[in-house]
C-alpha cells in the first residue's frame, strides 16, 4: 500500500516537473520573440510587443471618412463630410494626431460662432462619431473624443408646428395643381421631402376606400400609408397616362423633382398664406404629427405613419404641445 502511494506521488512529481520544464521553454520562446537582435552591433534590445486588436481598414483620413459615410443618405453625407473637413482644416492635423485639447478648442470656437445650438451640437456629434468609428475599425489607437461633452439643446419643436388654419391656407392658396398635391401629401401622409420626391406611380395603389402609398424611407425601410379618399383623388388626378415607373412629381426636365425645388414651393406657399416664419417641408410633417395626436390618434399609429424608429421620437410632439397642465389645477 505504501509502495503504491509512493509510486503515485512520484508520478505527480514527474508530471509537475515536466510542466515546469514546458513552461520554462515557453517563456524562453516568448522572450526570444520579444528580444530583437541588432545584427550590426550585436546588441540585444527589448522591443515592445504590438498587439493588433482589429485589422486596419483605412490608410488615410479621407478613406476613413468615406467608410464612415457609406450607406448614409445623400443629405447626411453632404452635411457630415462638410463637418469633418471643416474640423480637419481648422485643426491642421491628421486625425491620428488630434488631442482632446484640439477638440475642446474647436468646441469653444463653435460656441463663439453665430451658429444655432442645434448646428453646433450636430458638428461636434459628427466628429465624435467619426473618431469612435476610426477606433472601431483599427484606424485610430484610441478615441480622444469620447470625454468631450456635447452642448445641450433647447427644445424648440413647438415653434415649428403650424396650426391647422395655417396649413389649410397654404394648400388652398396654391394655384398650381401639382404643387397643391405636393403640399397636401406632405401634410396628409407626413412625408419627408426625400420620400415625396422618390415616389413613382408604382408606389401608389388604389383601395376600396381611398388608396395607399408605399414609401421607401429613412433607414432603408418601407412603410405603407393609407390616404383618405379626398387626398387620393387629388393625387390620382395628376397621372394621366404616365407609366408605373414614372415619378409622381416630375421636374420640367426628365426625372424626379429635386428636393430644393420642393423647398422653394413650400416657402412661397407659406408667404401666400401670410405665415411670417421660415417654413420648411418638414414643418408640414411636424403639423401632421401634432394635429393627429391632438385629435386622438394613437401614438403608435402616428409612429408607424411617420416611420419613427422609436416611439420616444413621436412622443416629443405630446410634450411640445401638451393638452393639459397641472397649472390648471391651481387656485389662481
Q: How does the SSE layout of this entry go?
A:
Elements: H1 2-34, E1 35-38, E2 43-46, H2 61-69, H3 74-91, H4 100-112, H5 117-136, H6 164-172, H7 177-188, H8 193-197, E3 204-206, E4 211-217, E5 221-227, H9 229-236, H10 259-272, H11 281-294, H12 299-306, H13 311-320
Antiparallel strand pairs: 1-2, 3-4, 4-5
Helix pairs in contact: 3-5, 6-7, 6-10, 7-11, 11-12, 12-13
Question: Overview of this structure, please?
Answer:
It is a single chain. With 332 residues, this protein is mainly alpha-helical. The protein folds into two domains: 61-153, DNA polymerase, domain 1 (Orthogonal Bundle), CATH 1.10.150; 158-320, Intergrase catalytic core (hpI Integrase, Chain A), CATH 1.10.443.10. Helices cover 52% and strands 8% of the residues. The chain is built from 13 helices and five strands. It has helices at residues 2-34, 61-69, 74-91, 100-112, 117-136, 164-172, 177-188, 193-197, 229-236, 259-272, 281-294, 299-306, 311-320; strands at residues 35-38, 43-46, 204-206, 211-217, 221-227. The strands form two sheets. The protein has a three-stranded antiparallel sheet with strand order 3-4-5. A two-stranded antiparallel sheet has the order 1-2. A hairpin with a 3-residue loop joins β4 (211-217) and β5 (221-227). The longest helix is centred in the first third of the chain and has 33 residues, at 2-34. It starts with a helix and ends in a 12-residue tail after the last helix.
